[in-house]
User: Fold this.
Amino acid sequence: MINKSKNNILSLIIKSLFLSIGGMIFPVLYIFIPAMFVVESVYSGIVKIFSFFMGVCFLVGLLMSPLIGVMMFVVFGPIILTFHYMISNKYSVNTTIIVTSIIFFISLIVGLYWVGFTPEVLNSPENVKSFIEVERNLMSSMGEKVELSNAYLTQVYNLTIQIIPSVLIIISLIVSYCTYSIVGKSILKRGGIIIQPSSFIFFRVPKGLPLALFISMFLIYILKGTIGSIYSIMMMNIVLIFSFILFVLGFSVLMYLLNKLKFGGILKFVIYVSVFIIPFFQIALIFLGLLDYLFNFRKLPN
Assistant:
């Protein structure tokens, strides 16, 4: 039993190091790192496993860059601790996802500020100029002959900066949900069981979440005269978050229907790819998600 535990921890360290290196090329790999440590913490205790996590961050700092090692610790350390606490104390799925999303969002903000991604830096003329140059070079490499003005590209850059809060919140929700799902399935494969999210085809949005977003939009609208130019930025971010949640819900309904109608694997793949590359389908799924939220087509329990 002791040898098996040692093997699991050795495997954890090796895998996390490879994922840390591979994540520099494919950032999506980083999503597996916190899940692995949370799984082992359930079996070996959080103090022991978190010590190994700190050791991995130190090794990453030596092998790659101290900046990357510290960034890993700042971003993933709090969510590992929070997940272990929430799972150990058997909190509900919705509560766990919301709390861990908030913790990860705060960690991202702290990490980004630490490496220098501050509002002052992002809005500096040098970054705007670099963005314009990159866009022009990209369009030239793609053979695009349409000449876009500096004013238009500057507007695009400013819009991109303005939606960063909603993008970070969406990333936090995705990381939290995926981490929780990976942890639950990994523990199940090892013969254990924890409270965990159901299969994605049965995904449901917590009843109070869209209402909270709607109330936020209403309050921002009322305070429009007080908050001034920030009004449009705040409203845009809330709309993006609300649209994303409904899109995910709509995608879950689509998967449910395709499974129920027994569509073939190839046809499913074509439909899924189309959803992500054709804007019309994305709007349709947002509308489908809204209808399912209101009428619960799948008759799922709250």
The chain has a mean pLDDT of 87. Residues 98 and 173 are 8 Å apart (CA to CA). Residues 201-301 form one domain. The radius of gyration is 22 Å.
